[in-house]
Design a protein that fits this description.
The structure holds 2 protein chains of 2 kinds. By secondary structure, chain A is an alpha+beta fold. In chain A, 35% of the residues lie in helices and 29% in strands. In chain B, helix 3 packs across helix 4. Classes of the chains: A alpha+beta, B alpha/beta.
Chain lengths: 311, 318
């Protein structure tokens, strides 16, 4: 009997290890396969050459796990936009060098978000939106965000950079969708190409430092658009945060009023003068939180917030 | 390596200038008059520049860089002969770890070669010089650029290069940083631990000072040489070339916080010059001031820094 029990136990353990090892191996192979497929998908977008520049070394690919190897200290930016995969390919012509980075994001709105962070430069007709300046072309198309860089920082290789960009863009056969939230930013007074889209506190603090604390409870569950406005003589920054539910929005509203504006809100709108005589306005509207910064006119800020609400 | 603390600091605190005052001064938000005027021993930081050290194609003239570097070292040690300064800092008994930065705006190869050459002249043996970033280590001159070895990390997440070295030289790049505000000598130690992600926090990476205050690093780091030949003044570590410029400088010192405070002032002034208005680094590089006030790793008070400038003075920005 004891021998039989031991035999049974060994048999059970055998089956368990076989299943476990088999399923682990399957998952492992699936991860490898998915990674290879993604890398191949990105590599297929790259032309072999452009304007005398040819691919130099083997392309390098990165995913969510090893993005830090390429961008230590910068990976968090891409991960905050639901990054999936990256391919980096150098092109060379003699001693000149151009680097192409193709980022694949989960959805196109995230790719736009990354693109939106710095739209300064010459607008170019490539992809869904593109800009070029001092040796760097950035464009967004579908769920791809592409950077093509000549680190010399001049325009000597501009033609090759644009040619590479056009070639890559032509091979991406999807059109991107802008985040819906963008349409809620009022068009009147919006400084062209100043609109940004993001989710997390780390992006907000890069664009406009508010606090080391996450006062607005921003996370991957929230979406935020931000724009610069010029309204007559008044400048201001407008933030619109969309929360998953009304209680999260209310909680963020109260937290911001108490910790930043040092006041307990009695209604849904608070306007306060802060340092340097600047006006901060905040308005709660169901799942939305509107915030204005940098204005110097209390009355005009109130009117601006009122107009936002009735839109 | 667990000396990480949470902090609360808002834009309003920043503008009031009542906390982290030295940061406000470095960023030009607060008048320097608010700083201490007491007579204290000042921390020496040397800034040396040469207009022609790199050409328009960014090729570095190694002879000019060598002269610049010698001049900087002489000023740092108050010696006519820079070799004396090297010999005062390093000897044949030392094993020296040179912590470079290879991320996006890498430490210039020519500078690494000159540091190497000076260490050899000071008597350090070739096999006792490590050049490294993260876990890529080169032993001796043959491997200084390839860095093929892996030394691993200890239980406290610290690179084993630090354990094996008797002396360290910190050779960071000079760049703004999207998450930490700025990345100079203090932040360069993030490439010496295997848990750097824990320091890249949403509170503006306030705990980086814990790295240079780490006893192993603090006791062994004898020299900081900040590569300011072509700094980055916006974004980073990923580079938008329009924010790079040929500053053609080296900033040399012994105090991480003092070196970084000088570099911060230069980067901030460059930003203001570029936009032709105040364009404050965002997020503010709190870790530099906190390295002083929280971790006691050096001084962030410009009034307590003896800045010696030499060479090209046009657009020196400090």
């Amino acid at each position: 009997m004891p021998n039989l029990k031991i035999h049974n136990l060994v048999s059970i353990l055998n089956r368990f290890f076989h299943r476990f090892l088999f399923s682990s191996l399957t998952v492992f192979l699936l991860i490898i396969f998915t990674g290879v497929t993604m890398a191949n998908q990105l590599e297929s977008l790259l032309p072999p050459k452009a304007k005398g520049f040819e691919k130099s070394e083997q392309a390098k690919s990165f995913d969510r796990k090893n993005l830090y190897d390429y961008l230590d200290g910068g990976a968090e930016l891409y991960l905050a936009y639901d990054f999936q995969s990256l391919l980096v390919q150098d092109y060379e012509a003699g001693e000149k060098s151009i680097t192409v980075e193709v980022y694949l994001m989960e959805i196109s709105q995230e790719a736009f978000g990354l693109y939106s962070l710095d739209q300064e430069g010459e607008n170019i007709q490539i992809g869904d939106r593109a800009n070029y300046g001092s040796g760097l072309l950035k464009f967004w198309k579908g769920n791809y965000f592409v950077r093509i860089t000549d680190m010399n920082g001049n325009d000597q290789n501009k033609e090759a950079i644009l040619e590479l960009g056009k070639n890559i863009s032509q091979k991406i056969d999807v059109k991107g969708k802008l985040p819906e939230l963008l349409s809620r930013l009022p068009a009147d007074g919006l400084v062209p190409y100043s609109e940004r889209f993001f989710h997390k506190q780390i992006i907000l603090n890069n664009l406009y430092f508010l606090s080391t604390e996450n006062l607005l409870n921003l996370s991957e569950k929230t979406s935020t658009v931000m724009g610069d406005y010029l309204l007559g003589k008044m400048n201001l920054k407008l933030l619109l945060v969309f929360y998953p539910d009304t209680s999260s929005a209310k909680s963020a509203f109260e937290n911001f009023c108490i910790k930043y504006l040092k006041t307990s809100p009695s209604g849904n709108r608070v306007i306060r003068k802060v340092e340097e005589d600047k006006i901060v306005g905040v308005e709660l509207e169901k799942k939305y939180l509107w915030l204005t910064f940098e204005s110097k006119d209390e009355k005009a800020t109130g009117a601006f917030l009122q107009n936002l609400k009735v839109r | 390596m667990t000396k990480k603390e949470k902090m609360s600091f808002s834009r309003r605190d920043f503008l009031k200038g009542t906390t982290l005052t030295t940061l406000g001064v470095a960023l030009g938000l607060v008048s320097p008059e608010v700083l201490s005027s007491q007579e204290v021993k000042k921390e020496r930081v040397v800034l040396v520049r040469d207009k022609d050290v790199q050409d328009n194609d960014l090729k570095v003239d190694k002879n000019l860089l060598s002269k610049m570097f010698d001049s900087g070292m002489s000023n740092l040690g108050s010696e006519d002969d820079p070799l004396k300064v090297w010999k005062n800092l390093f000897s044949s008994k030392d094993t020296v770890g040179i912590k470079v930065s290879m991320m996006m705006t890498p430490t210039h190869k020519e500078l690494i070669e000159l540091i190497f050459a000076n260490l050899l002249k000071a008597g350090v043996e070739d096999k006792n010089i490590y050049v490294w970033d993260r876990d890529k280590v080169g032993i001796g001159s043959a491997e200084m650029h390839t860095r093929p070895k892996n030394f691993g990390y200890d239980k406290d997440h610290l690179s084993n290069v630090i354990k094996k070295s008797t002396a360290l030289i910190n050779v960071p790049g000079m760049k703004s940083h999207w998450l930490a505000g700025a990345a100079f000598s203090i932040k360069n130690w993030a490439g010496a631990v295997d848990n750097a992600v824990e320091y890249h926090t949403e509170d503006c990476c306030s705990s980086f000072g814990a790295l240079c205050a780490n006893p192993e690093i603090k006791s062994k780091c004898r020299l900081i040489i900040l590569d300011g030949l072509r700094p980055l003044f916006n974004g980073g570590p990923q580079v938008d070339p329009k924010y790079l410029w040929n500053y053609n400088g080296l900033i040399i010192g012994h105090d991480h916080v003092a070196v970084d405070t000088v570099a911060l002032k230069i980067i901030q002034n460059k930003r203001d010059e570029y936009k032709k208005e105040k364009w404050v680094l965002s997020p503010p590089p709190l870790h530099i001031t906190l390295a002083d006030t929280r971790y006691k790793a050096g001084t962030s008070d410009l009034n307590k820094i003896e800045l010696i400038k030499s060479g090209w003075q046009e657009e020196v920005l400090i």
